[in-house]
Design a protein that fits this description.
Layout lengths: L1 H14 L7 E2 L6 E10 L5 H6 L6 E2 L10 E10 L5 E6 L5 E8 L4 E7 L13 E6 L3 E10 L16
Antiparallel strand pairs: 1-5, 2-3, 2-4, 4-9, 5-8, 6-7, 6-9
Amino acid sequence: MQKFLLTVIFLCSTLFGFAQSLEREEDNKHIELKNYEILPDRGYSIETVRTDSTLVFVQSDSLRPGQAARYWLKIEAINRSSYAQPCLLTVLPNIDNTLYYFNEDANGWITQRAGIDVVTDKGRTQGRMHLVSQGQTSTTFYVLMNLGGPFIPESYKIPGLI
């Protein structure tokens, strides 16, 4: 019964959309979510996901919880404003998501976790991940979604056992 209930929840989340558009704190008329792509995770690092051209992201696809417990989202957003804009990103299902984005001010990649299973995400903006989108640019950022359950990399699986 529990498995059936979880399947229904995941199906509903994919039907109603799992990547909501970016929200600015004032309004979001300058920020546009242009594209998203999905890749089932097989224990990849952010560097591998960003640079390995053999990994194939599928554009505008749905999550398939039976296929993988973790997914990578590659999201492209455009900031039409002349100025950098603070944004709030919510990715559904909001269980355990990790945002990776390049911060121009820090000159490095920033990581942020959010979701109902994340112990440190208990504030009033629970589930929202903060990022800055630079002015007049297209920004690509990544979200690692953990749909729950233990993650076992392919290299550790024994054929016929798992």
